[in-house]
Amino acid sequence: MMQTEFDFRSPEEIAEQKKRSEENEKVFKVTFSENSYLYNKYVDFLLDVLPFRLGWRAMRWPSEIRWWAKCKYQKIRYGVSDDDVYSLGSTIAVFILPRLKYFKKKGKVGVPCRFLPDNFHVLQGEAYELAVEKGAKEMEAALDEMIFAFEYIINADDFCELPEILSFRGKDFCFNNEKTKEQKQAWEEYMKKSDVLNERKNNGLALFAKYYDTLWI
Q1: CA gap 3, 93 in Å, rounded
Q2: Is residue 103 within 8 Å of 215, Cβ to Cβ?
């Protein structure tokens, strides 16, 4: 292996550093050993976790209170706040989704011309009924795709969750480490599924824009 750095320490200094490293490693192992408890396993856990959790949250309380007060004032004065536009896409999706679902449940009187053939006005009898039935099905399918798009925007993990082997729940997983064969395969499958879902989401948003003017009862 080609040497890329020069070590100007004396052999004594190198030996001393190695000795210190070994001692530190021993202390580290003892400190974090499962058998080295100050009181017991459960009390030590509470002492480690609770101060951090409560302390961290308490430290953020002043800024959260200021944010809440500012947004409340903006809501009262302007009707909209920074909280609404912090993630405007999600805010819009949360507003639209339940209304789209209710619109579909309520049902629309008749079928919009956008879902009917150009010669619909001259159709009669069975041809007329078939055109209306086909148009109603197409409109329902379009609504389903719109609803999916906004559901996906609000919570994509419900449709495509990151595999456990690639998340911090996975054993010994680290983003900076070289990925195993299984992890690489899981990532490829995850990305393929995400691409398909994103394409469907974009299609749903395009349908929402295309048929926006028909969304009335």
Answers
A1: 57
A2: yes
DSSP label at 107?
-
Predicted pLDDT at 95: 95
Whole-model pTM: value is 0.67
The answer to whether the CB of 163 falls within 8 A of the CB of 185 is no
What is the Cα gyration radius of the chain? Answer: 30
At residue 217, what is the residue type?
Answer: I
Q: Are 135 and 108 in contact (CB under 8 A)?
A: no
Closest CA to 47 of 38, 56, 34: 38
User: Contact at 8 Å (CB) between 136 and 111?
Assistant: yes
Q: Which two tokens stand for residue 68?
A: 């809440």
Residue 180's pLDDT is what?
Answer: 78
Is the Cβ–Cβ distance between 153 and 93 less than 8 Å? yes
127, two tokens: 């041809």
Residue type, 80: V
Write the DSSP symbol of residue 37: -
